[in-house]
Write the structure tokens for this entry.
Amino acid sequence: MQNRVVRCVWPLALAMLAILLAACGASPGTAALNTATLAAPTSTTPAAPTATVVPASSTPLPPAASPSAATTATPATTAPPAASATPAGPAPTATLDPAVAAVLAYLQARASTDLAAATNLSCKSWKSKAATEVTSFRSMNAKLVGVTCRITGSAGLYTLVGCGGKMVTTYGGEARDWDLSTFVYQVIAEDGQWKMCGYH
């Protein structure tokens, strides 16, 4: 008898449970509860990744990446053109002292046996001796080798010039070297020019 009652009550209990469940599903309070329950897994999901992500628009640009900073930094880091650092025109050359230039020109005129040039480069008191020196070298095929001159001092009205190098002469097939360092030349300003005026 008891088993028969259980068999009858059990389907009834199931039916009532189904009705109850259906009623609970339709209830507004239950719907809110179900929504909260379904949202719970989402709300319990660790929020660290979302919380640590900052929108790119709210992150300020570093000063170096700022367009205005980059624009102002460019002229400061740009090297000036090489042409502005190099002076225009040819490189300067050393200018000979006029007294030294006079001696060098006289030696060249003497070696090339240029009588007019040698006498024009000589002071009044040396012109005749200059002519003698030039004439004596006419048959010697003279040439200057490694000649350099410099001012070595002064003596009265004269500026003294010493030279290095040599004059090479060839006569009768025989070459001879004349050491120019053994001579000291006297130079004087005359008629607005520096002129060779003998030996000191």
Observations:
- The domain at 98-199 is CATH 3.10.450.100 (Nuclear Transport Factor 2; Chain: A,).
- The helical segments are 2-26, 28-44, 48-52, 67-77, 82-85, 98-111, 115-120, 127-136.
